[in-house]
Amino acid sequence: MNLEALSIGEIARRSGVSAHTLRFYEAEGILQPAGRAGNGHRRYRDEDLAWLAFVLRLKHTGMPLAEIRRYAVLRAQGEASTGERLAMLERHRERLAAQIDELQASARALDDKIGLYRGLLAATGERA
Q1: In sequence order, what are the beta bridge partners of 6?
Q2: pLDDT score at 4
Q3: Residues paired with residue 35 on neighbouring β-strands, in sequence order
Q4: DSSP of 89-100, one letter per residue?
Q5: pLDDT by residue (tens digit) across 55-81?
Q6: Helices marked H in the chain — which ranges?
Q7: Quick one: CA dihedral 70, 73, 77, 82, positive or negative?
Q8: Helix (H, G, I), strand (E, B) or coil at 33
Q9: Which residues are bridge partners to 109 per DSSP?
């Protein structure tokens, strides 16, 4: 299929987000306004799908919508904003690394508790 002519429904299906969310991202300036077919329906390009995948990655990793919106504005400015975009991504990466550290500490605490319970069950001959 030619990705140069994907409808909003096709983009929604491929990306896993609703058409409503795509319209919202467009209204918020996160997605550039889609091109339109002769019948007025939105038509998306390869670049739109790739950008949406990156936006969803930022969202999935906890970047606030306001920051994603700011990043999108900077992206639209082109090379002049490269330094600021880099700084934003570096700050986000630092926050993500801190979250990963916290999650790993939580996983270790859970492992300790699981080990304790398994030991208690083994001592009594019970099974989980």
Answers
A1: 44
A2: 60
A3: 43
A4: HHHHHHHHHHHH
A5: 999 999 999 999 999 999 999 999 999
A6: 8-15, 19-27, 46-60, 65-76, 82-124
A7: positive
A8: coil
A9: none
What's the domain range around 56? 1-76
CATH code (residue 50): 1.10.1660.10
Helices 46-60 and 65-76, packing angle to 10 deg: 150
Angle at 46 between CA 28 and CA 84, to 5 degrees: 50
Query: Among residues 35, 59, 44, which one has the least CA distance to residue 12?
Result: 44
- Its pTM stands at 0.82
Residue 109, SS3? helix
Tell me the C-alpha distance between 118 and 128, whole Å: 8
109 token code pair:
């605490």
What is the 8-class DSSP label of residue 3?
A: G
Are 107 and 128 in a shared domain? Answer: yes
Are the CB atoms for 77 and 34 separated by under 8 Å? no
Domain count, the chain: 2
Q: Both 68 and 108 in a single domain?
A: no
CB 26 within 8 A of CB 6: no
d(CA 101, CA 19) in angstroms, rounded, equals 35
